[in-house]
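pasting for the record
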Amino acid sequence: MSSTTPGCRLRWHALLVLISLLSWLAVTAPGCDSKQPAVTIVSPTGKALATVEVELARTRTQREVGLMFRKQLGADQGMLFVFAQPQPQAFWMHNTLIPLDMLFVGADRRILGIVANATPMSDRSLSVRGETLYVLEVNGGFCARHAITAGDRFQFVNFVPTAAD
């Protein structure tokens, strides 16, 4: 026979139910896949503005193909181009079917500049001033919707951003 009172047993049961529920939410909540590489974009004040699940373009071939020929991109998904060293970068939209926002980011993980709503299928060279180590491509209009601007900062989730070549 237990020496606990019915009220105490009820509280323990409620606590176990709460722990189970929180564990389930952590596993099933959108954007919480512990293995999916992601970038969280944070304002200078520390406010999280958005989190993007990313496909990594670390090799020369992956960077050359990028998002070409894709007909769609998920609302909170993108491609992160990772370069071996910071230097001026220029992108184009050749064979890219959807409008994109391009976030050019320096070695300090701060956004140097944004090319918003790049025109699909254009061969025009797109760049910003400064030496870029990362470029994040997301759906056109993403930055405006989330109030993302130059000076905001990247936090990398579930991966280390290094180039493969």
